[in-house]
Amino acid sequence: MLACTLPIAACGGDEAGGDPGAGNPTSNETDYAKALADAPGPLADLYANGDAIIEGGADEFESQLAALEGYPVVVNKWASWCGPCRLEFPIFQAVATDRGDRIAFLGVNANDGTDAAETFLEELPLPYPSISDPDDEAGELFKGFYFPSTAFYDRNGELVYTRQGPYEDEQDLNDEIDKYLG
Questions:
Q1: Digits of tens for pLDDT over the chain (182 positions)?
Q2: pTM of the entire predicted model
Q3: How many Å apart are CA 173 and CA 176, to the nearest integer?
Q4: What superfamily in CATH does domain 32-147+160-181 come from?
Q5: In Å, what is the CA distance from 129 to each residue of 2, 20, 132, 176?
Q6: In degrees, to the nearest 5, what angle opens at C-alpha 181 toward C-alphas 166 and 100?
Q7: Which of 28, 95, 97, 39 has the alpha carbon at shortest distance from 68?
Q8: 33: exposed, middle or buried (C-beta count within 10 Å: 0-12, 13-18, 19+)?
Q9: What does the angle CA 12 – CA 15 – CA 18 come to, to the nearest 5 degrees?
């Protein structure tokens, strides 16, 4: 039932009736690479591919997690057609930019087309890449059954927690990072 009600609630925009994507930074306005320039090697390598859609599904997802071992990882599953995903993207933009020098952030674009995802990221860019997962196999690995879902992996690459549904503000995401990743 949650999956059915979330997109309906998100379709109307914000309470003032505006566009939920309005006012979000674009790649031209925000230099994520500069903000994360001091990130350690594996994190810097990850963020060098910010906004990229990386093909490969579950295999590539597992490869990326292995490359990030030693760092906690926050994985956000999203799709271009998902209204709640659009609403929470500014939260991930801000928190990843703020905490990305200590924590890895990775997206999983599931049940979506690459062209649609790339168009979506032009409007709502991210400082980290997303794995293309057209069959939602990576989402199954971390039990991300809804859109959006967010998984937390510890420094050893072990799944600690998966949240089903969107974040409403930066504090909510930061609190869960602190709770599950220390």
A1: 333 333 333 333 333 333 333 334 444 335 676 778 789 999 999 999 999 999 999 999 999 999 999 999 999 999 999 999 999 999 999 999 999 999 999 999 999 999 999 999 999 999 999 999 999 999 999 999 999 999 999 999 999 999 999 999 999 999 999 999 98
A2: 0.83
A3: 5
A4: Glutaredoxin (3.40.30.10)
A5: 27, 22, 10, 21
A6: 75
A7: 39
A8: middle
A9: 65
